[in-house]
Amino acid sequence: MKTSRPTGRLFDPFDMELETPDPGAIQALVQTTLREDLGSGDLSAALVPTGQRAEAELHLREPAVICGQPWFSACFRAVAPGCRVQWDVDEAAPVEDPGVIARVSGPARALLSAERSALNLLQTLSGTATETARLVKLLNGSRTRLLDTRKTLPGLRVAQKYAVRCGGGFNHRLGLWDAVLIKENHILACGSIETAVDRARAMGKGRWIEVETETPDEVEQALAAGADVVMLDNFELGPLREAVERIRGRAISEASGNVSEHTLSQVAATGVDYISMGSLTKHLRAIDFSLRFL
Q1: Closest of 290, 291, 294, 293 to residue 61, by C-alpha
Q2: Is 136 strand, coil or helix?
Q3: Each residue of 108-137: pLDDT tens digit?
């Protein structure tokens, strides 16, 4: 993903363009997933004659935002390059009516061997996108945008963050390497917010700097130190509103900690720039799909 740096307004490190997933990253995840499932070989698929071909329909069983088509298709092609996947819906499209959304054709053994890996990736990423879209809808009418975290499923960091964008959300840092997030333990280890931010600037990496704060005094310290983003962690609504006003125009504000669908609108009403929710990627429910041979 590419960071957008508009001129004439405060730099927003989360304002990014949604880009096509990197083919190399897709293949790496697909190979890991298939290796886990196939092991030394698919014993059940061996019951089917080698040259037999098959066609199958992909059924969506419930409303969802479809996400993960590149990974789904790549699973079948990784087993047999001649496999073909024809989609009836677009990637990131919300689909309200259950039914057939794609058709797969190719060697029968390949379809059988790749089926579970393909469905696992599709159901997980669609689940992430669908939940994100549901929560983004609750923010309609506000200026606040929804942000993910690094609380992703192991091995699915890039894919899940892509799914969040497909659902209308925004991405926080990808990992520990692309930004400096100064949290409570970093502050304690460095001695102060000012020292931690100064050391981050001195590294000269050109990365944006965020400071996690828990009190109004820490907010002032983070602003005085020149943080690009100030995270307001577990603030009550009153203090949160006051902190957002202090921050406005001086940094990007982010509310985090114990935010749920029931409190999302109230937190957004404070005018905070972003709300981050780990539940987008760690508490997801997979979408129900099935693949049926014709």
Answers
A1: 290
A2: helix
A3: 999 999 999 999 999 999 999 999 999 999
Start-to-end CA span in the chain (Å): 39
d(CA 228, CA 250): 8
Q: In this structure, what token pair is assigned to residue 155?
A: 């091995």
- For residue 232, give the H/E element and its range: strand 229-233
CB 15 within 8 A of CB 6: yes
**Local confidence band at 72 (pLDDT 50, 70, 90 cut-offs):** very high
Angle between helices 23-38 and 108-138 in degrees, nearest 10: 120
The residue count for the chain: 294
- The secondary structure of 235-271 as a DSSP string is --HHHHHHHHHHHTTTSEEEEESS--TTTHHHHHTTT
Claim: this prediction has a pTM higher than 0.85: yes
The catalytic site residues sit at 116, 151, 183, 212, 233
